[in-house]
Fold these 2 entries.
Entry 1:
Amino acid sequence: MYAQMIKSTGQGVKSLDEMEPEERAFQERIDAGGKIEPKDWMPEGYRKNLIRQIGQHAHSEIVGQLPEGNWITRAPTLERKAILLAKVQDEAGHGLYLYCAAETLGVTRDDLTRDLLSGKMKYSSIFNYPTLTWADMGAVGWLVDGAAIMNQVPLQRTSYGPYARAMVRICKEESFHQRQGFDIMMKMANGTEAQHKMAQDALNRFWFPSLMMFGPSDAESVHSAQSMAWKIKMNTNDELRQKFVDQTAPQAAYLGLTIPDDTLKLNEETGHYTFAEPDWEEFFDVLKGNGPCNTERLEARNKAWDEGRWVREGLIAHAEKKRSRKMAAE
Amino acid sequence: MSQPLFEYLCRMGDNALVLGHRVSEWCGVAPVLEEDIALANVALDLIGQTQLWLGLAAEVEGKGRDADNLAFHRDVWDFRNLLLVEQPNGDFGRTMMRQFLFDGWHLAQLQALMDSSNDQIAAIAEKSAKEVTYHLERSSDTVIGLGDGTEESHRRMQSAVDRLWPYVGEMFLSDDVDQEMMAHGIAPDPASLRAGYDTLVADVLAAATLKRPEDDFAHKGGKTGVRHTEHLGHMLTQMQWLQRSYPDATW
Ligand SMILES: [Fe+2]
Ligand SMILES: [Fe+2]
Ligand SMILES: [Fe+2]
């Protein structure tokens, strides 16, 4: 997902009996569906884990601006340009909400940004894939935002208050993102031969990377078990992936497009689709920095940050001058 | 009458189209997240204004074209925007200086157009003026903040105003199209906006501790379409490429 491969304490989940009174009260509150707020006591592992998860999610929103930003100046109509720009602007806003949520845990946005720029912190693997045709704007909205929604809707109930509230705001906008993507896909799939070909090609390239967004199977993972006990992860990766495939396969059929998986089939008994796993070796390569666009994405973020330094410094210097002038006048 | 009116509406629409496009080039790479969001707001407003002005232009022309046809299927010589707005972004400082120099004129222009004898023009102007009031507020603040910031930001802002000043004068020049608009009470005399503009610029540059360039030489040829800069053609190759490569497609 937007936060992939987050490691928790790795200790396994403690039972209530094994906990000190503070921790037990904390866990009982979560079990009862209560929210943890910034000033409340929390285990160090919970705090660290959340910082990593929310930070990675925020970075994904920010880096996620780039593949779609790639097409704003080439959007084919004024309306499409406005919709795409508004969508990418929303993603920047999502980044902002999430950095604010992370800051309630005692890190600063600048700290997190530095870790992104140095490559220490990750962002979702999906944004390391290139957007090559206008149909990719459709595929990204439809599949990538679609996959993000799968994960983010349950996170509205996550145990950490500021994170849950950020998710509520974000989810409102995500469904518009997915709809505009699907709308582009409809136009392309039902358009000229060339447009249809672009739509199919976009689906071919984005299908498996979208499945990878959920991360490898974590049914056996101690990290996931802990995160789920803390309710900062609400479903297993496989559950969400299945839900995504079940939702998306009929949509592809409606578009008249073919999902690039010969084994994809509806199981009449279970009502779920069976489908092929993505190439997990490719996934780990992308995480290691060897995706098609990792270098470009980090370069672009670093360039923006470096070239913006004088602006940030200038505005801070001005604000300070204003403050001291005001103090001198008083 | 319909030809000069069409020209005039293209001037308004093309300014918004070309500047909106330039500003949208910043998407995802601004100096801070808040600026990214604010720049996108400005670009979105300008794209919306483009749809209104060029939509009305197409209607007035009456040849079955629409705003998209005008935006994506005209070549450089048919564009009627000011040379100022087609200037490349440069650094963030130059982008914001360009914005300020344009916004100051744009707001005064729209306020005058709110009294237009043409109701459709007055209505578009009224809606746009609300948006542009905010653009001007923001671009003035940024010019002041960066001019009166660090030594480096001051130097960059001075170089931005020096670089862009030769494109300011064109906003106040008039030709036959303007005469025709004035005669029908549709639009103001461009020269009538100069005094207010000079006061605004003097105030903001003073607060920014920047010097107003002394030489008022003005490049011209954008709003008449006689001679654009080399930059516009490159912008159009990108902006219009998809429409022109697949002319039989709808999007
Ligand atoms: Fe988002
Ligand atoms: Fe997203
Ligand atoms: Fe989104």
Entry 2:
Amino acid sequence: MLISYALIKSKLISNFAYRWESIGVILASAVEMLIVFYLWSAIFSWNNATEINGFTLTSIITYSVVAIFIRLICDTVIDGEMNYDVKTGDIIVMLSRPISIRTHYLSSAIGYFIFNLLFKFPLAFVIAILIGIIIPGLDTFLLFILSIFNSFLLLFAICFIIGSLAILLNEETWSLWFLIDALSLLFGGFFIPLVFFPDWIQAISYLLPFHAIYSTPLLIYVGKTSGIDALLSIFVQIVWIIALFIIGGFVVEKGLRRIEAQGG
Amino acid sequence: MMKNESVINVKNLTKEYVIEEKESGLWSAVKSLFKRKKRKIVALDNISFSVNEGEFIGVIGPNGAGKSTLMKILTGVLFPTKGHVSVNGKDPHKNRLEIAKEYGVVFGNKSNLLWDIAVIDSFELSKSIYKIPDHVYEENLKYFAKNLGISKLLKQPVRKLSLGERMKCEIANAFLHNPKLVFLDEPTIGLDVLSKDSVRSFLRKINKERKTTIILTTHDMKDISELCERVILINEGRIIYDGTLSDLERKFYSKRKIRILFSASYPKIEEFSADGVLHVEKNGEEYLLVVELKKIKLKEFVQKILSKYKVADFHVEGIELAEIIKEIYRK
Ligand SMILES: Nc1ncnc2c1ncn2[C@@H]1O[C@H](COP(=O)(O)OP(=O)(O)OP(=O)(O)O)[C@@H](O)[C@H]1O
Ligand SMILES: [Mg+2]
């Protein structure tokens, strides 16, 4: 059993208890979207440019706004949740249930993701449209949805590894997220598309999983990758998901062995 | 296999924790990044026992004795350092997910219910995780709501419940899937006198009616005296007693209180002094004597008093379990 529907449902209900808090998060994203809008507008008018590295002003604004959008929707809080469970010893309770640790946290993350889709997605999308992003065709949009679902799984897999390290090392690891997050913003092409970077950064970024989180769905959305290329980039996402799930599974198994020996 | 196979079998079980000592101070914290001092704690030391179906067992012992550790090993959450454990004929650690369906558990200081959702939603979650059939679920819900007095709590989110209210819901949750075996680690913490009564009669009923094997740890000796025929007493990781409650009282505490009301003359306190009489006091009409059974034959002692004085009323009582336990822990 990879996920538990009942647990997803419970977590979804839990999240609704905090729906008003998430308004703040959405507003913060709206502010970020405004910032990138004015930033790129300034850059283009200063250069009198119509195109930079193949991006027009509207397409680069769309890219940056949708990037913020993806980060808002795909964020999982699993690393924090796992750290909390290790610190409080609640992880022991989870081990006494007939579902595996990964099923538990994956279901929890999906519950949160669905909450984001139901609650944050519409609000943030309206804001993005008001700012003036490109609306793609239906086929592009469907590929985009598929690829941000993969982005969610990738972020989950990374957070799960961080959380599993907390189990393994018996230390708090949530601050590791800040490092990973920063790396993913750079090498994922979050702030600016990867083509804006020198070759060596682009080379490194294709060795790391982060481009599959942000760059892949973004390039699909703005139409830079389409057709076979789009499907290929989604395939690369899936390869990374599998690789990271395997690593996470390995770390959590090791971690559970430690807990079983040392008792939390 | 024998027909009367025991539900739990523990043989020569030892559990050691290795802990990293965290010294105080900044410098030590920095040093500990590179090198850590390790220390071994023997939480369970070569213990053996077995449990038969339908037994209600109380595990008692002072703080840090190893009770919770034992519960965690029996539920498969921790693995033993040495020794052999089997639950329902299986190694609980190797078959953790499978065994987890067969037992119910309450870790008194942890929560099995989800914090942010209503109690009933958590129950629904258990229904799905444990694959409880509809009719069993409905029946149990009704039965538990009535017997534990939790019907009014079901719609409330767990985080808004008082400790005792939550505890009762946790207990209900542990029994929801009709487990044949239930571990309760301090399930009565936080319960008021009335709630304790309802929880105890609930547990007694379930144990009798459904033949559920229950293993309970507690610091409340009334839980033990009202529920458990068998007691396992653990101290510093070792079983120092395993047997019936009455034997425990006899073995570890050989003192009795005798209360006497005299009808005619009131004897002087000194008249009772003898080897084996530990204490005499007079409260108005009533005399209280504490005698040591190892030195005095109770029957003869009482007969002597009855023949010597005119006695209106008397009775002999044991000493409360709590006091016995106190005495044992002190030794
Ligand atoms: N995770 C752990 N790591 C290291 N040592 C532990 C751990 N858990 C328990 N211990 C130690 O093992 C011993 C037994 O602890 P345990 O929790 O089993 O006691 P207990 O009988 O349940 O006590 P209490 O009545 O206070 O609940 C104690 O000395 C405790 O400090
Ligand atoms: Mg304990």
